[in-house]
Every structure is written in structure tokens, then in C-alpha cells.
Amino acid sequence: MSVARLARAAAITVAYVLIVAPIAVVVVTAFSPTDFFVFPPPGLSLRWFVEFFRLDNMRGAFLFSLEVALIAATVASVLGTAGALFLARRRGAFATVLQGLFLAPLVFPTIILGLALLLLYKSVGMPVLPGLLFAHAVVGMPYSFRTTLAGLQGLDPALEEAGQSLGAGPLRTLALITLPLIWPSVLSGWLFAFIVSFGELNTALFLTGPGQTTLPIEIFSYLQFQGSQLVIAAASALQVGLIILMVAGIERIVGIARIVRAR
Amino acid sequence: MTGRRELWRWGLVAPPLVISVALFVGPLAYLFYVSLHEVSPSELYGSWSLASYAAIAADPFYLLIIRRTLVTALAVLALALVIGYPVAYWIAKLPARARSLALLALLFPLMVSNVVRAYGWAAILGRRGVINTALGGLGLTDGPLGLLYSPEAVVLGLLTILLPYMVISIANVLASLDPRYAEAAQALGAGPIRTFIHVTLPLSAPGVASGLLLVFLLTLSAYVTIAVLGGPQSKLLVSLVYDSVVSFHWPQAAALAFTLLAIALAVSGAIMAVVRPGRVQGGRR
């Protein structure tokens, strides 16, 4: 039995080290004072963060990513919440198909979706920003849909029925009863959609344009064409920092247990 | 009154439905339509033709890449399951609060962009990376080892990026299992190993299936990880889709995309047939 226990301890250690190590190395490197990659860094400095905000393309990509993620997550939340409200109490074949359709982008190879949208956009002449917003709204919608649906299914239907029997129409019931009760789910869905958009690579790979590039794509093109400049470590660390803030936000709103179950 | 309520309900579902059809189903149908045409030097596509699919089936280079894609995916799946299952088993047995924290430690890296995590591995495995510096410093190697730009680096990168999906899928199912099943087996005289093989493992089939499916499907489209860690020598099918797009061969890119989807469907079917998650009825707490 002790061999089995040893093997399990090894698997746990290996798993967590493999998962966390690459992110930890990048974040530590971002504070390096050296010109090139040295690990562990001989000291600490913020020079690469200063460099990040001095470079127009990096700062531009960061702001563009923020803009895309803010709008796309909002669109995704509106769509996902509407879909969840419709499907929360519906059964049958149509509801099953619809649910599958709304959740499909979670498992569908997104690079193919990116290619399909690129061809569609090329034939209708879609500009870069709305095209990318639509793509990220489609990719983010399932996250909002799923968390909101879970929130709605935990809701006592008697509360909505009470509102309706007292004469409130569907819109008033939604605004005064349903939304105030499920807003933590809606908000955590929004945060998930934001995080997904902010780190998204596969559709953005095809849908960004010159001067309108998201931060992950900018990091990728630096990795491919500019060698290992440490400014991409700073860019990566900023990404990680922003996600830590968002997760802390979700934790405050809905609690840790809900974050873990929402995925 | 009920009529108005029905109208309202359809008004709710119309926006997400229209967006899903117009920007998900529709574009994919159009992509399939494009794949059935010739490559054209000036337009998006030329006249009707199955040439792009025929080229994929006939060219040994494509077949080599498809085989390499399958071998890579299989290696990632096997490693993810072997490492992920014990971790999930451990997490499922933790008290609620510790379990949430352990899952959050796996969930957080999933939120970090894959390009950041690929860059991390490039920094660890590169010629001046962490491992080569450490080995050189200890005097164990004469010069830097070429760890990066290899199939092994791609497997390692994909494995670590996708391992959390496997662990979380299995842990969620294991944590919701009714402990009385295992207790009953032990009361009837089964040892811990027999209980695990005959009771716990089959009951966790839905988690294993969804973990395998997620890891496999995400392996197929992880272009950036493959490009950063594999370099030009270790291309997979998704890299060829990208290359065709960059060279504006739209019908070829579309045909490769549907080849990728066909493989995704076939392997997903095989996973479901082997793991048979549907055999578990109930079993939840």
C-alpha cells in the first residue's frame, strides 16, 4: 500500500509542478533587471514593465484587448443570460438541441471557428474590431450561459410565480425578482467571459489586423519574430496579475466553491 | 396573458439563437461549401471540385502529419489520465474547503493565456533556459541540450496546459459519488484495490470520458502551443490549417479543417465506445 501511496504523492507533485512552473518562471522573469533571460534573475527591477508601457504596439495591444474583452464579455453575458432564462424551465427535444448549440463553442475546435468567421468576414467586408467582438462573444457566451443556468436552477420557482400572481408582467418579474436573485451568477459568468476573451488565441489568430492586435497575439508574434525579449515576460505577468484580480473578484461575489463548480 | 408570455419567451431566446446560427453554424456551413471548391489565385475559391480532399488523401506528407497528430494526442491523453486520475482521487477525498482550494490552483492556470504558458515552457526548455543553465552549472553537460522544438516538448506543453481539465472532470464526479457504494463493497469483503477496480473506477467513467474528450479536442486546436514548442519540424494538422490560411489557399484550409473535425468526431466516438460513460446510472449522492 505504501508503494501506491508513494506513486500517488509523486503524481500529485508532478502535476502541480508541471502546471504551475511555466507560469511561475514567466512571472519571476518579468522582474528581471537583465537584458536577456537569466534564471533565477540576479536582482529585481521594474524596467520591463516600464518598457512594456513605453512600446506603442505593446501598450496598444493591452488596451485593445481590454476594450475587446469588456465589450465581448458584456455581449456574451446578455446573450448567455437570455438563453439561460429561456431554457431554465424548459424540457424536451428542442430544449436539448438548443442547450447543445449554446454550449458547443466550449468544446468545438475554436481555430476552425476562427477560420470560418474569417471567410465569412472576407465575403461581407467586416472591419476588424466588430468581427473580433462577435467572435469573442460567441466563444464567451457558453460560460455566461452555463453559470446563469446553474443559478436559475437553484432558484425557487415559487418566487417568480408569486410576482406573477400579484400582477407583475414578465419584464417586471425579471427586473424585480429574477435578476436581483441570480446576479452573482450573471456577474461571475461575465468575469469568465472576460477572462476567456482576454487570453483567447485561436480565433484572434485569424481575425486581428495591423494596428488592431490583442495582447496574446502580440506576445505570440514577439515569440516568433523578435526572439526572447523580456518585455513579453512583463506582458505575460500583467495578464496573470489581471486574472488574479478577476478571480479575487469572483471569489468575493460568489465564493470559491462556485468558481470551481462553474467550469 | 399566456400568449404574451410566450412571445416574451421567444423574444428572450431570439438573440442568442440568431447569433449562434449566424456566427457559428452558418460560417461552418459556408466553410464546408468553400472546401468543396478549387483553390483560386484571385478569388476566395474557384469552381466545384473535391481536389482539396483528394490531395489530403493522396499526399504522404499529409498522412504523415495526421499520423503524428494522432500519436501526439494519444500520448497526451495517456499521460493526462495516468497522472490526472490519482490527483483527482486525492482531491475528491479532501474536505470541502481544501478541495475548493486544490481545484482553484488547477483552474487558475487554465485562465492564463496558452501563449503565456507556452512561453514559460520555452523559457524552461530553451538553449539558455532553466534546465540547460542548471545542467551546465552542475557540469553535467558539455553544451546546451536541444530540448525545445521537439515532439516531446509539444507533448509536455500540451499535457501541462490540458491536465487541469482531466483532473477537474474526474474529481467532480468522484466527489459526488455516494460513499455507500465503496462501503458496501468493503463490507462484502472486497479489499481497497478490488473496490477501486470494480466500484469506484467504473462509477467515475463519466468524468474520465469528459476529461478525455476535452483534452483531446483542445489538443487538436492548440496551434500556438504547437508552434512555440514544436517549431517548424514538429507540425501537427492544425499547423497545416494555419499555413494554408497564411498562403491564402482557402479551399485547402477549409478541407484540412473538416479533416480535423472528422478526426475529432471519430476519436470522440472511440473514446465514448471504450469508456462507455452511459453505463453509469445514478450513483450520485
3D architecture notes:
The complex is a heterodimer of chains A (263) and B (285). Chain A has twelve helices and no strands. Chain A has one domain (55-262): MetI-like (MetI-like fold), CATH 1.10.3720.10. Chain A has 263 residues and is mostly helical. In chain A, 46% of the residues are buried. The model of chain A has no long low-confidence stretch (mean pLDDT 89). Chain B has 285 residues and is mainly alpha-helical. Chain B has a domain at 52-113 and 158-279: MetI-like fold (Orthogonal Bundle), CATH 1.10.3720.10. The mean pLDDT of chain B is 89. The chains are: A mainly alpha (263), B mainly alpha (285).
Could you give a short description of this structure?
Chain A is 78% helix and 0% strand. By secondary structure, chain A is mostly helical.
- CATH level 1 class label of the domain at 52-113 and 158-279 in chain B: Mainly Alpha
Secondary structure class of chain A reads mainly alpha
Structural class of chain B: mainly alpha
User: Using DSSP, what is the number of strands of chain B?
Assistant: 0
Report the portion of residues of chain B in β strands: under 5%
Distance between the termini of chain A: 34 Å
Corresponding CATH architecture of the domain at 52-113 and 158-279 in chain B = Orthogonal Bundle
- Return the CATH topology of chain A: MetI-like fold
Instruction: Compute the number of strand runs of chain A.
Output: 0
The CATH architecture of chain A: Orthogonal Bundle
Q: Report low-confidence residues of chain A grouped into runs of 5 or more.
A: none
Question: Rg of chain A, please?
Answer: 22 Å
| Mean pLDDT rating of chain A | 89
- Secondary-structure element string of chain A: HHHHHHHHHHHH
Can you give the mean pLDDT of chain B? 89
What does the oligomeric state look like here?
A: heterodimer
Calculate Rg of chain B over CA atoms. Answer: 24 Å
CATH homology superfamily of chain A: MetI-like
- Helix tally of chain B? 13
CATH topology of the domain at 52-113 and 158-279 in chain B: MetI-like fold
Form type of chain A: globular
